[in-house]
Amino acid sequence: MSDNKTSNSAADQPYEPIPFAKKHRISVEDAKAIIDRHGADRKSADKEGRRVSL
Q1: What is the pLDDT of residues 1-35, one digit of tens each?
Q2: CA 18 to CA 29: how far, in whole Å?
Q3: What secondary structure, in 3-state letters, does 1-54 show?
């Protein structure tokens, strides 16, 4: 058994721009910028996506 703690779950991966843009009702360009800034940190990306959508 290996103690390797790496995970490939969706929560560990960055968002795709189009679904993220649709989720937050923002432009794909804004979504790409947010994803570039936050990478795989989905919690921070979602927080900024909600802020931008207002």
Answers
A1: 444 555 566 677 889 999 999 999 999 999 999 99
A2: 9
A3: CCCCCCCCCHHHCCCCHHHHHHHHCCCHHHHHHHHHHHCCCHHHHHHHHHHHHC
